Amino acid sequence: MRFDTSQHMKMGQQMRLAPRMIQSMEILQMALPQLEERIEQELESNVTLESFEPGADEQAVEQQQAESERDAAEGERPLDVKEDGGPDDFERLDTLEQENPEAFENQYESARSRETDEYVPGSRSVSRLAGERDAKMDAMANTEARAESLTDQLLEQWAFADIDEELRPPGRLLIQHIDDDGYIRIPLPQLLEQAGAGQDRPTLETLEKALLAVQLFLEPPGVGARDTKECLLLQVDSILEAETDPERTLAWETVRTLIDAHLDDLVHNRIPRIAQQSGLSTADIKHAVEHMRRLTIHPGRALVNEASAAIVPDAIVEYDDDRDCYIAYLTDGRIPNLRVNQEYAKMASDRAVPKPDREFVRTNLSNAQWLIDALNQRRQTLLRVINVVVEAQRDFFDQGPQAMRPLPMTQVADQLGIHVATVSRAVAGKHLLTPRGVYPLRKFFTGGTQTDSGEDVSWEAIKAAMREVIDAEDKSNPLSDDAIADGLKSKGLDIARRTVAKYRSQLDIPPARMRKQF
């Protein structure tokens, strides 16, 4: 085998994105909460960037001038207490102390602090006297405490459980293997193998006793179950233990029988088969199923229920009666107004400032100005895209989802004269608050087909029409996917059966046998 080295020349074109361009695209793609966090980081790291309130500076200057003019007009009456001063001087001193008690209190405390060179509790700083608050302390005070994990809460319950001491260590071992849904997924023999060897290692019999104690004493009922059936049975047993009404007790006993012997048939809605095998009437089974709605297959989530993040709409669409059209405006009022600090701008060109310092300031000034430009560009691009959407989807705002029109991103990009990737980034993660609710902005960009009459209709409109067909069906004889396709065809929408099945799954609509009501 022979190895050779050689040199070749070739011509080609390459497109490389500058770091600034990449960062600009990232800012365009950010939703409002992310953008607020990014701006806060920039304000903390860039000394040349500052936020301001429009008109605040002018008001501060006018207030300062007014105070200066008032002081000059009124003048200051000097307090001259002579060595042989009379009672008038001390009366003036008492009057001043009564009018400004906090100032005099601070004077006394400051003097005592200087004399003893120690901190005097209760003494106020100048900022406190001016009524200012410590923003960091306020933020710490208002920060929500971190929630305890499911394991920590269960271990705390286990510490107070009335059980034999020999069961506490294996119980803690079991609790550490309970997942967020409340289940112990790992088999007990395998759990013992993972525990390793040692004097504290429990036997399988002790571990099974500890599991029974965990299931009995820990709340909510169902925690510590090894499968769905055991989880539901634990909850039913807890209800039966506290139930005193004979009629409800009978109903829950029926529920327990169904879960224990016919859970698979219940999951697949095989009510006649259950009635045939159990001897119960269909009415009794349906009554028991209604009781089962009180049960949960995720008991652990009752203790670690993570709240969903609130959706912050990036724009609001409203109807204008005067112009008979819909208008959109951005909800970026929480985004602070940014500007370059003029003192640092002067420092960048001041020869008296050392060169390394000037270079540092110039770099930060450039970054600050770029961020301001990127935010302005984001605002303009997003608003232009939303305005095109509002104009193209007028029927949606007037009539609802069934009137949504196809709107490819390429069409919007061509109309605005921008790249389709820019449109995609502009709509990513954004939401619109409309008269019909909050919708993801990307939802308005959809493909579609044509009806038999040649009218364009979007896939979202087809899904809305499919839901209307299913809602109108006879629940005792629900429509199959083929029948749903026929119903859509009667509306002029020729859709294949497999497409109906796909959209039905996307809409979380179960198949016909699961929708049947007996």
Description:
- Among the domains are: about 150-300, no CATH class; about 450-518, Homeodomain-like (Arc Repressor Mutant, subunit A), CATH 1.10.10.
- Mean pLDDT is about 80; it is low at about 75-85 and about 105-145.
- It has 24 helices and eight strands.
- Helix 1 (about 20-30) packs across helix 17, helix 13 packs across helix 15 (about 280-290) and helix 21 (about 460-470) crosses helix 22.
- It is an alpha+beta fold and about 525 residues long.
Biggest sheet: strands side by side, in what order?
3-2-5-6
Low-confidence stretches: 75-87, 103-145
Q: Helicity level, as a percent range? A: 55-70%
Structural class: alpha+beta
Q: Distance between termini?
A: 79 Å
Number of E-type strands: 8
Give the mean pLDDT: 79
**Taking Cα atoms only, what radius of gyration do you get, to the nearest Å?**
36 Å
How many strands, which pairing sense, and closed or not: the largest β-sheet? 4 strands, mixed
Helical segment tally? 24
Strand coverage percent: 5-15%
Overall geometric form: extended
